[in-house]
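Researcher: Can you fold this with flavin-adenine dinucleotide in place?
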Amino acid sequence: MNKKECKVAIIGGGFSGLLIAEFLQKKGYKNVTVFEKENRLGGKLHTIWYNGKAYEFGALFGLPNQKFLTDFIKSHNIKVDGPKLYRVNYDANGKRIMQIPKESVENFVEELNRLPDVLAHYNNIEDANIYNLDECLMLPFAKWCDVNNFDILKTIYTNYFTSYGLGDINVVPAIYVLKVMSYDNLMSFMELPHLYTWKEGVSKLINALEQQIKDIRLTQNVIKIASSKDNKVFVHTDFEVAEFDKVVLTTPLNQFYDFYNEDLEMQDFLRSIKYQDFNVYAFIVEKVPKKCGFVLDNLSSNKRGHIILWNSRWHTCEGEELVMVYAYNHTEKSKQILLKTVKQDLLKLGFYNPRLYQTKQWKHSPYVDTSTLQKGFYDKMTKIQGKNNLFLAGEIMSTISMENCIKYSKYLVDTYF
Ligand SMILES: Cc1cc2nc3c(=O)[nH]c(=O)nc-3n(C[C@H](O)[C@H](O)[C@H](O)COP(=O)(O)OP(=O)(O)OC[C@H]3O[C@@H](n4cnc5c(N)ncnc54)[C@H](O)[C@@H]3O)c2cc1C
């Protein structure tokens, strides 16, 4: 079909949805509509403002080695002008600690030197699409470390991966960990002050895209996607039903398993997608300890609900300030109990008089488990792309991070449109 006439709907106005819309428009598609259920764009790129300063509810930073992100900000004339990030590791009582004991440093260096050769074995891990997945990458990451004798790296990865809410490495398969934290990313991560942040927050990236996209519909929750006899796709919102030639999903995919009502395997796959329940609290505090604090004592799964990370983005310690506090959700505990736990943790860490300003609960870092990968989850996802004119994108396809969203969104448009 002629690109000028082809009507494309993109469901989800997060980073992936807006990127796909922009890539399509650049390719000559004239009828691209983005449906977003909230009254704001951006999804997990979510900056909030307090006393004239920007703070992040979702993504915090990019890495300078990330090629797609670097190209994106250059091509949209976005300056990297945000505050520097620092990392300080604490125990649960606010005492500073080392990431790994001194006596392990030599072994750490040996493992780090060996890591690139081990990763070189997987020749498609850097590709946008996940396919022909090596059996070993389907194992939980901790097991993958055992297979490769990476004892210290297991701790280091826990300290980075788990503390950003990405999950328990004893459960999450190696592919997800290594897609987010490749060797280059890990090295980049260790030099926190060099990371990309933006004075006006990550939403700056969303604003740049918003200006390019012609047809954006906010507060339009898509409740159903259905095929018509003549191979068109109906998009049902709370308000209307609209007809399109092609539809791209960038939302959590399990909402739309009904579309595949003749494909039980696909329905099971979509239902098997899991998320990290992750809470972000914005507290107004006085006397803010400077920098970012990582509470390494709280990274094990029996410490759910406790603070794992706090970020005092503007590094001031005078007067009142907003501090973003991160904790895995504990589904069996009430919101009141969880807030009490977090406040007690803050006091132990040396904060004074914390008052809750706003919170956000994320379905963060989607993944499927080892057995679902072994059943061929990603091969099926690749095979089903475009069937009945429905295309799948977003975090479960790209794996998380702004870099991976750009890489996958570009791949999808280049390959199928
Ligand atoms: C706390 C946190 C910290 C992070 N830190 C970083 C970081 O430092 N660096 C980094 O690179 N990445 C980070 N990430 C990950 C990064 O933010 C995400 O991978 C990326 O933003 C995902 O974009 P997306 O568009 O694929 O998904 P989303 O942002 O989830 O967008 C999906 C959109 O779909 C909308 N939607 C859902 N259902 C419907 C429906 N039925 N109808 C219409 N719309 C719907 C949602 O409202 C949302 O806007 C972080 C994420 C979180 C949560």
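Model: Folded with flavin-adenine dinucleotide in place. The first strand starts at residue 7 and ends at 11.
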